[in-house]
## 1
Amino acid sequence: MKNGTSKATPLPEITLDDIGGLPEEMKEEIHQTLSIIKDPKRATQVGIQAPKGILLYGPPGTGKTLLAQAIAREIGATFYSSSGSAFTELFVGVGASRVRTLFQNARKHRPAVIFIDEVDALAGKRKEHGGEESEKTLTELLVQLDGGNDNEGILFIAATNRKDMLDEAFLRPGRIDYTFNVPLPDTHGRREIIDIHTKGRLLAEEVYASLDVLAESTSGFSGAELGSLFETASKRAIRDGREKIGKGDLDFAIDRTILGSTSRTLNDP
Ligand code: ATP
C-alpha cells in the first residue's frame, strides 16, 4: 500500500514533557482528555463521552506530530500514522479503499491511534476539492469516523496547517470532538524547547550563558527550527573535533536557519 498507510508505526519514547511551549490551559485540557480516554466507564458515569477525534492545527514544525505520538504512548495505543496526501489518487475508489483498510487494521489492534498529518489533502472543502475520487475518499473517511461501536478504542487524530480548508462535515462533533491550536512558541516556550533540545548535549560555558538571549531573539522560530539549530551546531562541532558546542557552531546554525527561511531575521533581544 502506498506510503505504508495501513501499517502500524513504531512510537518514539516520548511524553508530553518532551514537548515545549504548549500553553498551560492546553496541557491541562489534554491531560483531562487523556484521563477520559483511559477511564471511559467513569467518564460515562459522569455523563462525558470519550472523544473520538482530535484536530491539531497550527504552523509547520510546532510539535503536532510529537503531540499525537505522546498521546498514543500515554494511552498505550498502537500508532497508525500517515499523511493526507497518501490517500489522493487518480483512480476512483483507490483512496477510499486505503481509508477503509487503515481503519480495519487499526480496529484489529485496539487501543489504536490513527494519525493523519496534512489532513487538508484528504478532508478539504468539497466544492474546492473537486473531483470524484477525492469526494469518494472523503465520504469514506466520514463513514469510517461514524463507525459507532466499531470505533471503540480507536482515537482519530488529524493535523493541519490549514484548518480553514477543512470540510465542515469532517469537523462535526462526533467526528472531531476537540480542536487544539498548536501555536508558534513565545519566549518562555522557546526557552523550554531549547532546554529539551540541549539536554544530553555538551555546550561551552558561553553558549550555556547565552540561552536566555537566544530564546528572546528567536521570535517566529518553530520548535522544529530550534531543534535543528542544535542538531546543526552539534554536527559542526563533531566535524571539527570539538567536544562541546561552541558559540561559533551555534552562530553558524542560526545563520543557516535564517538563510533557509525567506521571512526570518534574528530580532534584537
Ligand atoms: P508539520 O506541520 O510540518 O507536520 P509538526 O507540527 O507536526 O510539523 P513535528 O513533526 O511534531 O511538527 O516537529 C518536528 C520536530 O521538531 C520534532 O521531532 C522535534 O524535534 C521538533 N519540535 C517541534 N515542535 C517542538 C516542541 N514544541 N517541543 C520540542 N521539540 C519540538
## 2
Amino acid sequence: MTVLELDGVTKDYGDVAALRGVSFSVRRGELVAIVGPSGSGKSTLLHVMGTLERPSGGVVRVGGSDVARLDDRALSLLRAREIGFVFQQFFLAEHATVRENVADGLLYAGVRAAERYRLADEALERVGLADRATFTPNRISGGQRQRVAIARALVGSPSIVLADEPTGNLDSATGASIMALIHELNADGSTIIMITHDAGLAGQLPRRIRVLDGRVVSDTGVTP
Ligand code: ADP
Ligand code: ADP
C-alpha cells in the first residue's frame, strides 16, 4: 500500500527553483533516506512531503488524499493524524515534562487528555524512556531528548515519520543508538523517511533517494 506519492512536484521561492519535478512513492513499512548536499532541496522536500508547504506544481498524495484538494483545516488534521516529525534540534518544551512533551504530539489530533497521557507512556516505553516520564528535558541527555522527540512523533501512530537530520546534533555513538532505534521502529512497522546530507548514514538504510539541484538523480534499493 502506497502511503506517500509525489508526482512532478515543483517548488519555487521567487526566482529560486528549489524542486524541479520530483516523483517517487513510498510504501507502508519502508525505511528511506533522502540524501543530497546542502542546497539540493532536501528541506523543501521534507516540508512538501509533510504538508507544511504546498507545492508550486505537481501532486502530493498522503494516504491517497491529494493534498491540493484539502483546505487548511483538513490539511492540519491530516498532518496531525498521518505524519510524525523529528528534527535535528529536538524542539522540546523545556518547562513541560517528558510525558507532556510526548502527549503534545496528539494536541491537534482530537484525542482526550487522559488518552493522550496513556498513549504517551506507551510511546515512551517503545523508545526506552518510560523511567524518565516525569523529568523535564534539562535533566536528560541529548540522545534521550531525541528519543523523546521520536516518541512524540510516534504517539499518534502516524502513517509516515519524517526525520530531518535526526542525528545531526548528536555525537557519533549517540547518533548510532538513534539510528538503531530508527531501524527497530521500522522493523516494528513504522514507515520512516530520513533526510540526511551524510552518505555514510544514508548507506545504512535500505532505500536511498538522492537529490541534486531540486531533482531526484537516483533511487536505489527500492523494493520491487
Ligand atoms: P537542503 O535542505 O538540501 O539544504 P533546501 O531545500 O533548504 O536544501 O534549499 C533548496 C534551495 O531552495 C536552495 O537554493 C535554497 O536557498 C532555496 N530555498 C529554500 N527555502 C527557501 C525560502 N524560504 N526562500 C527562498 N529560497 C529558499
Ligand atoms: P548504490 O551504489 O548502492 O546503488 P547509491 O547510488 O545511493 O547506491 O550510492 C551510494 C552508495 O555508496 C551507498 O550504498 C553507500 O553505502 C555508499 N557510500 C557512499 N558514500 C559513503 C560513505 N561516505 N560512507 C559509507 N558508504 C558510502
